[in-house]
Design goal:
Blueprint: H1 2-27, E1 44-47, H2 53-63, E2 70-77, H3 79-93, E3 103-110, H4 112-120, E4 134-136, E5 140-146, H5 149-155, E6 166-174, E7 178-180, E8 208-210, E9 218-221, E10 227-235
Length: 236
């Protein structure tokens, strides 16, 4: 009985410590669900347990459009990148869109070397991580994200590695306002001004271009801070 009591007390202390750490992360502007960071606050990728609700939630989004088998899902914990993203989302995108940043979870294919940048990046620098940019005839040069995982595999994922595995991000993206990417562009275009007497130069830029305004499946943003690489999904 005494040993059992000590075990219960130790469990309570661990739970209390975990709750305290979660509150401290929230006060620091970091997600409460994050776990401990690396030494000195270094960024880490945390492997999610397959039976956890967090793993299952991400897996459902991936499997909704893709039949590939998930090997692992890692949560990316990078404080500098997270703060850079939330500052841009909350103080640049949201204020220019009536307080709504139109945040979405979107997929972005990548290769193994690009994903390894997150763990080796300087913990204090958000500029060390850059999203891959590509150019297409439809929407031009920018950072491409897809609503559907299968679209990201076809568009941007690197080839399978020696183990036959590929990787992609599930990112949080501050989409903001968007327009159709009818012409190749290197930055978000301005809205058309059809109000007599109004200066077109005074209009706010769109934040994003898409493939279909009514039902967008591809989103192109132009700033690294517009997205946070929340999860890395490894699949084959």
């Amino acid at each position: 009985p005494e040993a059992a009591g000590l075990h219960v007390e130790a469990g309570r202390r661990r739970a209390a410590a975990a709750e305290l750490e979660a509150r401290e992360r929230a006060r620091a502007g970091l997600p409460e669900r994050w776990g401990p960071m690396g030494p000195g606050g270094a960024p880490v990728q945390v492997a999610l347990l397959p039976q956890s609700p967090e793993f299952q939630r991400v897996a459902r989004l991936f499997e909704a459009t893709c039949e590939k088998r998930i090997v692992a899902i890692h949560r990316v914990q990078h404080a500098a990148l997270w703060r850079s993203y939330t500052l841009y989302r909350d103080f640049t995108i949201a204020p220019s869109n009536d307080g709504d940043a139109n945040e979405r979870q979107l997929f972005h294919g990548a290769d193994r070397d690009a994903i390894s940048q997150i763990s080796t990046a300087d913990a204090a620098a958000s500029q060390c991580f850059k999203w891959d940019r590509i150019t297409t005839h439809a929407s031009g040069w920018g950072i491409y994200f897809a609503r559907d995982a299968q679209r990201s595999i076809a568009q941007r994922c690197g080839p399978p590695d020696a183990a036959g595995e590929q990787r992609m991000y599930l990112a949080r993206v501050a989409v903001g306002s968007y327009t159709f990417g009818a012409q190749p562009v290197s930055g978000a275009p301005k809205p058309t001004c059809d109000v007599p007497g109004r200066d077109p130069a005074a209009l706010t830029l769109f934040d994003t271009v898409v493939d279909d305004v009514r039902n967008p499946s591809v989103f192109v943003v132009f700033r690294d801070a517009a997205a946070y690489p929340e999860y890395v999904i490894t699949f084959r």
